[in-house]
Each structure stands twice: as C-alpha cells, then as structure tokens.
Amino acid sequence: MQGITEITGMVLKAEPVNDYDRRVVVLTKEKGKISAFARGARKQSSKFLAATNPFCFGTFKLYEGRTSYNVMEAEITNYFEGLREDYEKACYGMYFLEVMDYYTRENNDEKEMLKLLYQSLRALMHEGLSNVLVRYIFEMKAMVLNGEFPGMPKEGEWEESTRYAVSYIMDSGIEKLYTFTVTPPVLAQLKTIADDYRTRYTDRQFKSLEIVDHL
Questions:
Q1: Other C-beta atoms within 10 Å of 212: how many?
Q2: β-pairing, 32-38 with 69-78?
Q3: Could you report how far apart the first and last alpha carbons of the chain are, in Å?
Q4: Whole-angstrom Cα Rg for the chain
C-alpha cells in the first residue's frame, strides 16, 4: 500500500494527534470509510486547517504508506457553511455523520451511503423542509441501504399517507428522496417507525442523537 491516490469524499470526524496533527475519518466514493493523518493541520498557517473539519466534501490526494494514509492535498467543493451557522441544523448534521461512521466500512462500496449523506445535508439547509422530517427519511433510507429495513410494520393503524411515504423512501432514488412534505400526524407515525427500527437494528447509543432529541 504505497503511492499517491486521489479520492472523493466527506470528512466524518477529526481528532487531534500529537501537538499539531489531525486524524480524519473520510467517507469516500472509491474506498469506503478510511482514516488518514493530516500533518500540521492544527497550525493556523496550515492549508489543511479548514479542509479537515467535519462536513468538508471534496477531493483529497493521499499518500498510501505501509500502514496508514496521509493527506497531501485537499480541494474542498462544499464546506456546508450553512450548517455551521445554524446550531440546530449543525446538531442534526453531526448526528448524520455519526450514523454514517457507524454503518460504513473500509473497502466497501459506500457510494450510495455517501450520496445519501450529501443529499441529506443539503436537505437540512432547505428552508421548505423540516429538520425532523429530513432526519426520519435519512434514518430509514440508511437502514434500507444497509439491508436492514423490514418495510412497513404489519401491526398498527397507519395513515395511508404514511404507507405511501415509507414506500417512497424505500423505492425512490436518493436524488428524489427529499421532494415531499407530510402532515403532523404522518410525521408522528414516521417517528414511531424510525425510532422502533433504529432501536431494534442498531447496537449503539448515538451521542449526537441525545443532543438532537433535546432541541
């Protein structure tokens, strides 16, 4: 594993290493989820200072060493600055990043997961969509892509619009996923379904979800 490789992806998380370095986790189109080191990224003069923050999407040139990747260049095409300027949206966005970190793996084909993450963050910044609706759509579609979503619950009295919404989330392409709104009763039923399946099929307590639930 040696040489220069170029990947397209989004930074899921960043953490300090040593005095000035950062370790970043990037969800990529080519290699699934990978970790890489950005030397000197915490220095104020570093070209990687802004490019290695969560939400940054773009292309990264990496040096593949024997045991790790190292960031050599970064060209960011979307910083998702709108999320950084809105506390509530930022909290939802951080939750989405944490979910993706949970679901994805290195060397897996995670193109659809990356696309879902990108489109979901864009949807958060759309004034016509509620953050709560975006969250439930995101949660259910992530389970669909991961092969865990069992479909509409067989038990319970569900609005016909709820059945239609769940079917649409399951079957639609990601580009068309965030093109509808729902009534408050339907939103409440989507919450019930998403909460039940998330509890049943994930084995982690998401730290960022605790913050979102208190907004």
A1: 18
A2: parallel
A3: 45
A4: 18
62: helix, strand or coil: strand
Report residue 130 CA to chain centroid gap: 17
Domains and CATH numbers, the chain: 3-78 (2.40.50.140), 81-212 (1.20.1440)
Position 96, amino acid: F
Nearest to residue 12, comparing CAs of 117, 119, 140, 134?
A: 117
What single-letter amino acid sits at 140? M
* Per-residue pLDDT tens digits for 86-138: 999 999 999 999 999 999 999 999 999 999 999 999 999 998 999 999 999 99
Residue 101 CB burial class (10 angstroms; 0-12, 13-18, ≥19): middle
Unique residue bearing structure tokens 């970190």: 101
Element (H, E) at 103: helix 87-103
Q: What is the percentage of the chain residues whose pLDDT exceeds 90?
A: 91
Please give the DSSP secondary-structure letter assigned to residue 30.
T
Question: Count of CB atoms within 10 A of residue 87's CB?
Answer: 10
CB 176 within 8 A of CB 198: no
Q: DSSP of 127-146, one letter per residue?
A: TTS-HHHHHHHHHHHHHHHT
